[in-house]
């Protein structure tokens, strides 16, 4: 039974083949209903009003935090900070932890596989503090080269920023192994960008082992504008706030202020309670399917799509073998520019991403200016693969077989 | 929109002439003694070109481009260099403005003979996400002309 019916946008557009879930997922009706229900039944400003409605809003916001924390294996829900998304979560660490901790002569390690959101904040931190930025290189099939990582993580390293799953190639990185490698060589913290992991596979923060972990709601059936930062309590407590204002304070004296407890210290201003409730509803939706089934389903589709596309002359697929990827497939077709490919596919109702996928350092290393990327999720089925393959064949026809 | 309409628009976009200019770009490469060298990027899709221009007696004497990108950006650059070479700056400004009108959807501009082979790019108007690709080289040309005007003071 197809899950398309659960997603109003897909149900409304039977001819649409949405293969860009790595950019943002579609939203099931239950999530949209949960957001509407919050506003219709519980809307008040959490943590503020001494009246029942505000208490109801607070309860729903707190309960959403517990649901999401349990989903990603965080025993202490107060170590889960709601943010606007992964980008804000990573910037929070780079600003709050980074600006107070990193010194000249320190080293910051990122990888060539990072999304700009887990690359640029660290690069800028290095520029501002005078620390040195070092980049872990990749193997030829798009995995992190752990030898390269081992050679650049030293006693000088203060932070190692890695992703759990690559948005551009779908590579699933061995986070626990990397954490062990870093701990054995340095006192550095490990920051993990989980934006492409949490929607697709079971994540257990406490056993995975990094110090910080960030992800977004909108890629996992939740609404845009809500995401999470998880951190180890002792680090979060030692860090200064990222933003200041209402709700995050304890006492405001004329000349100084003391901070509220976790998680409030990092949630200045009115929280995005409605979208947190929506995200919790998305978690319930994914839990009902089961994360093992989510990965199995999307990988089976991606794997079949990879096989079918591989049979087409001129198609080149990037990254590790499909059995080791999430539901992401990056590819090119001869000299057909990915942007042209995406336009032609769009004409067939197939939505894919074309471009550098916010991974310009990776694109340079692959020696391409852009790739086409198809990404699969729970609502996709084999008809999407057929449409994709037909569209690629059409592009090949339009551009003529000779030069491909 | 019915899929067949979109399919027809795709066919109108990828005309033979565009693919020909994409695969065999004219005036591609650096030129000698350039007066202006303008790099232009479309960060969204990674298209990038550098346009080099040499001026003489109020006209463009020679120009060439380097870089890489999609078929629309490359073909547009190639056709543009062919059309504006030898034209006066005033003539070029008229063509540039007219071309811009065409890719923004003006049907009058799309049937304007003064645009010559550039009319092959009229299909772009139906693809808002691709208009920037078609204008990339022209924006570089505009920057070169402005630079020239400032230098002439």
CA gyration radius of chain B, whole angstroms: 15 Å
Count of separate DSSP helical elements of chain B: 6
| Biggest beta sheet summary of chain A | 7 strands, mixed
**What is the 3D form of chain B?**
globular
What's the pLDDT, averaged over the residues of chain B? 92
- Counting DSSP E segments of at least 2 residues, the number of strands of chain B comes to 3
Largest sheet entry of chain B: 3 strands, antiparallel
Net shape of chain A: globular
In terms of quaternary structure, the protein is heterodimer
What is the radius of gyration of chain A?
A: 22 Å
Alpha-carbon distance between the termini of chain A? 38 Å
Order of helix and strand elements from N to C terminus of chain A:
HEHHEHEHEHEHEHEEHEEHHEEHEEHEH
Query: What pattern of helices and strands is seen along the backbone of chain B?
Result: HHEEEHHHH
Helix/sheet category of chain A: alpha/beta
Uncertain spans of chain A, ≥5 residues at pLDDT below 50? none
Number of strands of chain A: 15
The share of residues in extended strands of chain B comes to 15-25%
| Range of strand content of chain A | 15-25%
Give the termini separation of chain B: 51 Å
Average pLDDT figure of chain A: 96
Helix percentage of chain A: 40-55%
